[in-house]
Design a protein that fits this description.
By secondary structure, this protein is mainly alpha-helical. It has helices spanning about 40-75, 110-115, 120-150, 160-165, 175-195, 200-210, 225-240, 250-255, 275-300, and strands at about 85-95, 95-105. The protein has a two-stranded antiparallel ribbon with strand order 1-2. Helix 1 runs antiparallel to helix 3, helix 3 (about 120-150) runs parallel beside helix 6 and helix 6 (about 200-210) packs antiparallel against helix 7. The longest helix has about 40 residues, at about 40-75.
Length: about 300
């Protein structure tokens, strides 16, 4: 599924005298000056896009949640209207095939209540969707790096044929296409295997492989703590997917750490995902992109 970016972004040269000073920016694109920097340029060009994707995903869930509150307020004003009826329809088998029939009918008071009761469920789905975005982002960035630096991914006797294809890639257009198709298949297989690892572990592996370090101005967080935060997000997501109703010790222990994103889950209590925790996840993704961007800028400058 292609992720939608409702935000969009503009690219401009910082030294351009015609750029209005009021225009803000939160991403620096690094133009490659040598072959070794090509993956960095593509990565920094993708940061703005991913910033918009994360924000757009959150906005869509926030809009859905807002709609439930609006509906709650609307139906609450009709509680004294005896003629009011909220109908829910679905398909049932009829004489002419599938037919729309009413499967539930509520008065205004109950209609107001059930709309509000649906908020935690929507927040839960939203959290899972934002996690999916995070997973897609990590693998997108990792694959960008491998595209320009495939050496460590084609080591060993089992990948001898890939090394041969890579060495012959510049012979012709056909040979280059064969290499690209074969390596794309290798990337897909690598990603499928990595999906079984915790996403935080995959992210930390990416940082180590690429040499991404904490920006020099950072005193509290590092790639290791970013990875731990992602690990905690994964724990929440896995709990949701597996139908866990109560906060586990693993999740509660994560929440005692300084990199817990303020989740504040307590062992044994009901696992609830509210709008505040969605916001915590969204702001983390925004800060993570900024951290990676700053790290890559310093990597090139150094």
């Amino acid at each position: 599924m292609k992720r939608e970016n409702l935000i969009g972004h503009h690219e401009f040269i910082l030294s351009d005298p015609f750029i209005a000073k009021s225009i803000g920016f939160n991403n620096v694109i690094i133009q490659a000056t040598c072959e070794d920097e090509q993956w960095i340029e593509e990565t920094t060009r993708r940061i703005g896009e991913w910033r918009g994707i994360f924000r757009s995903a959150y906005i869509k869930w926030a809009i859905s949640i807002n709609g439930l509150y609006v509906a709650n307020e609307k139906y609450a004003t009709k509680k004294d209207d005896a003629s009011f009826a909220f109908n829910i329809q679905s398909l049932r088998k009829g004489n002419n095939g599938g037919e729309l029939v009413t499967i539930a009918q509520w008065d205004a008071e109950k209609s107001a209540k059930v709309h509000l009761d649906a908020v935690p469920m929507i927040c839960t789905y939203g959290f899972t969707d934002l996690y999916n975005c995070l997973e897609e982002f990590v693998f997108d960035f990792y694959r960008i790096y491998w595209k320009y630096n495939p050496e460590n991914l084609i080591k060993g006797p089992e990948f001898r044929h890939l090394r041969k294809l890579r060495n012959e890639a510049n012979i012709s257009v056909e040979s280059r296409q064969k290499w690209q198709e074969a390596f794309e298949e290798r990337l897909d297989n690598w990603q499928r295997n990595k999906l079984y690892d915790n996403l935080g572990k995959v992210f930390l592996s990416y940082c180590k492989e690429t040499g991404i370090k904490k920006p020099k101005s950072y005193t509290l967080s590092t790639p290791e703590t970013w990875a731990e935060s992602i690990r905690g997000i994964s724990i929440v997501r896995n709990s949701i997917v597996h139908g866990v109703k109560k906060v586990t010790k693993e999740l509660a222990d994560f929440c005692t750490e300084p990199y817990s994103l303020g989740f504040g889950f307590e062992e044994g209590k009901e696992l609830k995902i509210g709008t505040a925790r969605l916001q915590m996840l969204e702001v983390f993704t925004d800060q993570l992109l900024t951290s990676i961007n700053m790290s890559l800028v310093e990597k090139v400058r150094d």
